[in-house]
Amino acid sequence: EVKAVATPTLPKGTFRPKQSLGQNFLRDGNTVAKIIRTFVADAEKTIIENDTSGKMRAVELGPGAGALTDTLVPTMEELNASFQCIEIDPRSVELLGEKHPSLRVHHMDVMQADYPTMATEEGGPLSIIGNLPYYITSQILFALADASHFNAVRSATVTMQYEVGERIVAKTCTKEYGILSVVFQLYADCKLHFKIPPTVFYPPPKVDSALIGLHFVGPTKLRERLSGIQPMELRRVLTATFQQRRKTVRNSLKKLLTDIYEGDKEKVQEILNSKPLPLTATTIKARENGDEFALTQELPDDWTKLRPEQ
Ligand code: SAM
Questions:
Q1: Nearest 5°: CA angle at 72, between 71 and 77?
Q2: Which has fewest Cβ within 10 Å: 22, 111, 231, 282?
Q3: Are 294 and 279 in contact (CB under 8 A)?
Q4: Residue 66: CB within 6 Å of ligand 1?
Q5: Which ipTM value was assigned to this complex?
Q6: Which residues form the Ribosomal RNA adenine methylase transferase N-terminal domain (predicted)?
Q7: Which ligand 1 atom is nearest residue 109's CA?
Q8: What is the mean pLDDT of the chain?
């Protein structure tokens, strides 16, 4: 049980937050305690569900001056969990090294993180925690989803802009529903845990934040859900479909299909007239070979007139 935590303080003098690195430091002990409590619950839930070893392997992304880290170190020790951090700012690496000499802090860009290798070294899938830098939130999340494909990441409990969090958990037929909703709801069970006001950060960001929990479903279930579709192809179609929200799905896909079939208009027309719609280039190719990989979901008769936000 993580009890209330003392107000995190910034080291005097040198550690001024850098906007370019998305540094908004947590400065409220209650919020820190709430985030860590939720992280432990998320991680334990996925351990029980998916991991027979029962061990928690925590990784914090962007520890900064250590607002979460200072409480995570003793908490993880108590839980007998492994714990390491990834941080790009050398000032943070130095500071954390002084405060927690035995903590492993990888001094690197989180986008270069090799989660599958880290998971192999740790002996099983990782649980991620982080008050993420908002300028690369979705790239970080996509990388985690990809890693879950290799059984390297089981859960992620991370803060982000509230509006991004809303898009991740959005239901179909809402204006927030988009690529983030489709992808993350496919890869994970997603939960918006709670809203976080700007006042608990220093400096305060302009918008509200949210703590999001992702419980990745893992490779087996994901393969079932994708039923033969390649993840990258899926993203290509989703990008084509959602990028231009004012276009009909038909027109967005027409462009993509015209690229794939190098301008073969008849072929494009034939595919656009088919129902259910073959979802990706892979599925289209599979169909030609007589295999049936197409979407099984029933589409309304006028599906090509639908717009992504409907
Ligand atoms: N965890 C601290 C807290 O809650 O007070 C800091 C959170 S701050 C929102 C984001 C952290 O991510 C900063 O420490 C920043 O230096 C780090 N960061 C930004 N870009 C990064 C990147 N590309 N790779 C690794 N860390 C990064």
A1: 110
A2: 111
A3: yes
A4: no
A5: 0.99
A6: 35-218
A7: 24
A8: 84
